[in-house]
Structures are given as structure tokens and as C-alpha cells.
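Lysophosphatidic acid phosphatase type
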Amino acid sequence: MKLIVECLIIILLVFSITVAYELKFVGTFIRHGDRVPTKNIPDDGTIWECKLNSLEMYNNHNFPKPTPSRHFGKKFIYDRNILPGNCSRGQLTEIGAKQQQDLGSKFRNKYVDDLNFLPRELDPDLIWLRSTDTSRTMRSAANFFSGLYPPKDKKKQDVFPIHTMDWNNENMHFNTKLCPRLAILKNQIKRSAKYRAHMDSIDFFIYQIDKIYGFIDLDGHSLLTLYNNAVFRIRHNKTLPNGLTENLIKQLKKEGGWYANFVMGNKTLVKLTIGPFLQDLLDAFDSKITGENQHKFHLYSAHNSGIVPLLAAYDSFDSTPVEFASNVVFELYQEKKKYYIKLSYNDKVIKIPGCKQEMCPYSKFKKITQKMIPKNYEKECRI
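Predicted C-alpha cells:
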């Protein structure tokens, strides 16, 4: 009997801890879905066929909705592109669109069905979407949103804004236009003794890859790009280059991940790459806490070059290349008058460095994050 009572007490304590935290806000940073390559391989005859049907309407949402009688779709002229076929380089594929729809549906299951955090019917005042100004991230945001809130009436027309900015000002990825010093820092890291020693240690592997692809002067970034290229080919049933074995692909993955961690995960590079976005994120949290921000969910659709430094800012990048449709989720909770942040990456909870528990006090999280935000960004980015 005593054992039963003790068990009940434990259950009640666990339950009280669970319900004490009230979810107030979710910020989700995603990588776009599956895409075709961004670069072509020399003498490669692979034809890339894109069948994703995209109808786009350009309209200021403050004006009346455009008539549904006519829509326009972008279609690339066959064999007039960098990649052989009818795809633009880096274009989102049908698989990529499905990945994002599935991810949005997964978030609906959690935040609508399970937690009752978001309403069952779309309330545009609660959701805010942002994307870099590229087709694959814009479409990824749209497909994620369609999974989160599937259109019920296909005849009814909704116009929902995806916020973006000029590429030169974008702070959600490695942007040398915004911060020219990033290019210099990156080259300095690649000229460092540790980087050169590592590349020397894999010189035979690089020789093998050179021979297969016909490239010269391969660096770590090239190895990551070629790993992604191999993944595309396997997923889309395209022929792999002669001599590219499963073991070589595994090593491409390993070396590409090492490069991403050593170069893109460098703390100075991280600050200048993702620091300004972290300030945007803190502003969203702060305005939610003060009651100025009525949103409950923010989506940020971006790239691998944003997720790596974002994870590295919290010492959480494990040198594994970021997969398509990966996501970093920041959840803001309230417990009485205190606020907490819970961070996760692809469903795995991340323990924020400096915090003893998964629920990190917001005041501590803010101090940790502010260390990764440049005090004078313009000055620190000057060449």
C-alpha cells in the first residue's frame, strides 16, 4: 500500500511539473526541402526534370484579392538552363514540397491536435512567415504552411504574406553581401594550420574524388556539395558517377560535416553570420513577453548555411550534414511570472549550454544568446 501511495505522489508531482509550464510562442527555423543541384558537374549528361506545379500570384495583401480567373506559373525553357533539362538550379522538387507538407502536418498534430496551442481554424493574426528571397525557400514555407493549415475550400482564395527582404540585407544565412568580412574570415580559417593539416591527411581520398568528378583543387565545401549531389542522384534514381562507391559517399558525408563544423561553426563566423538574426529572435520573444507581439507561431524558411551557425551558437552542431526539411524549434514557456526556452533540433531536445535543465530560464538564455550577437555589426563586418 505504501508503495502505491509513493507511486501516486510521484505521478502527481510529474503531472504538476508538466502542466506548470504554459506554451506561449514557437519560433521554427527550417531548411528548405529537397532540391535539384545548384552546380553542374563537368561533362555530366544527367537530365533534371522538374514537374512541381507552382502557381504564383503577386499581390499586396492590403489590396483586394486578385481575381481567381487567371493564374500564372513559371516554367523554365528546356535545355536553356545551367542544369540540363527544365530545372532552375536549386529548384525545389516534388519530393521537397512533400517533405515540407509532411513537416507542417507533423507540427499541426503537435501544436493543434495534441497541445491545443494553435486553433483548429486558421487565424492569420497568430501566424507569421518569413523566408529568404529564393524560390526554394519561399515554396518550402508555402508547403509547410499548407501542411499546418490545409486549404479546406479549393474554390476559396486566400492570400497569405511570406515576409522577405533584399538578399543583400538577409541575415538568416552566410551572407558576404551583408557582412563582407565573412569572406575574409572564411579564407583565413581555410588557410589555418589545423585546416591544412586535416586536408593533407585526406589527400588520397581527395585524389580519388578528383579522378571521379574531374575537379581540381577540391576543398571541404566542395566535398559537402558533392555529398549533397550524390544524395540527390540516389533519391531521384539518377546514375552515380563511375567509381563513386557507397564507402566514398559515406566519407564525403563525414568530410563535408567536418568542414561545416570547423569552418561554418567557427565562433567568430557564427556571430557575424547568424548574430543579427538571433537579435530578431530575441526581439520576437521580448515583444511576446511584454504583450506587444500577438503572434503565436513564427516560421523562418532558410538554408543549411543558416541552420549550421544557429546550432553552433548553442554548441549543438554535431558535424552531421543538415538534411533537407531539418528544423530548429524555439519554444517559449511561461510558469507563473517566469519564462523559459526549450530548444530542439529535428525532434531532439537540445540542452542549452549554461542551463542545467532542458527548460532554460529566459533571462539566462538571453544572456547566452547576446554573447553571440555583435555589439557593432557594421564595424565588425568592415573589411
